[in-house]
Amino acid sequence: MNSPSRVISFVNAGHFIDHYSMLIFAAAVIIMGPALGMAYSELLPYATPGFVAFGAGSLLTGWLGDRWSRRHMMLIFFVGIGASMIAVGFAQTPVQLGAALLAIGMFASIYHPVGTAMIVSYADRLGREMGINGVWGNLGVASSALVTGVIGQYLGWRFAFIVPGVVTVLIGIGFAMSVVHEDRKGSKQAAAQARVAKQDMWRVILSLLIVVIAISTTFNAVTVALPKLFAERLADLTKSPALLGVIAACVYVFGAMTQYTIGRLLDRHSLKTVALPLSFMLAPFLYLAASLSNLPLIVVSIGIVMGAFGQVTVNDAMVGKYTTEEWRSRAYAVRYFVGFTAAGASVGLVAWLYEQGGFVTMLHAFAALCLLAIAAAIILPREIRTPQPV
Description:
Layout: H1 4-36, H2 40-43, H3 48-56, H4 58-67, H5 70-89, H6 94-108, H7 111-122, H8 126-154, H9 157-178, E1 194-195, H10 201-233, H11 241-268, H12 271-278, H13 282-289, H14 294-322, H15 328-369, H16 371-379, E2 384-385
Antiparallel strand pairs: 1-2
Helix pairs in contact: 1-5, 1-6, 1-7, 1-8, 1-9, 1-10, 3-6, 3-15, 4-5, 4-7, 4-15, 5-6, 5-7, 5-9, 7-15, 8-9, 8-11, 8-14, 10-11, 10-14, 10-15, 10-16, 11-14, 12-14, 13-14, 13-15
Main location: membrane
Subcellular location: Cell membrane
Membrane topology: Multi-pass membrane protein
């Protein structure tokens, strides 16, 4: 038997690595452009295939997690994504760069359907563990901007990929030595924890599809665009890539705290009770951010990441609560296929909107999209809850 705390610790580390690796390019592209002689809008689309693979690959990886082995899939994740980051650092042409970024996306697609299902299987208190797991993912986002900015400024953009790639492979070796394959179908979390009336299940599915598309697209757009937004709008405060990374990291810390808080609330209250007030955060903050700069922009950006990361925790908990162990990885696979495929399209959309009208047009467009999150929360039915351990 595996130690639940050890398994969850490695899975949490995987969440950190998953988001960190996917966003190195978003931060490094600012200094990669001049080095490669390409503009921001020309270079950014090379990340699109990787983000599409991030979502599309989840269907296969989720199926393999359920039918083969979640442990083996996580081992492939650690080693594969580490090697892919190293490959980006050695890329010499745009084609090689695009191929290596695609590989990162393919291996990154393993984590969410497989790793999140492992969290649900080993958790005593689902909301709490999902919240903590979300914090680790958020810290990966924050650290990516910070560490990439520092390494890129002092060692160059190539080492910003190579160093975390080597560390990830070493973590994978530790995982292989510490975690063994086992059957979790008899665990306490094997059954679904919450249910709704049978005639209302269509409302759960519709609500989930709407909010996943809206939030995943916005979440990815914000995390991709934030380094460039800060570089433009915080010019009166600083032009240092390292300091801009520190500011972005501090903003994301608030998102991490929100995820932990939302996770705890989900153990005590129904999904609808938590999701409805949270759904009203994103649209107004995105709209306000379009016209702000310097300190006011930082304050509003905190509201944006709190709303976005809080919604992600609700979405993941929704799947975990309504599915059984046998189908859990596949259920997460569908959730992340829809979400990350939409998110992949957001990279090209950010580049196109930026060309049309800069960040004003981009932020207004995503503010309008986030109105759908409110509709999704209203559609969600009240659940019939199963008592949980406290």
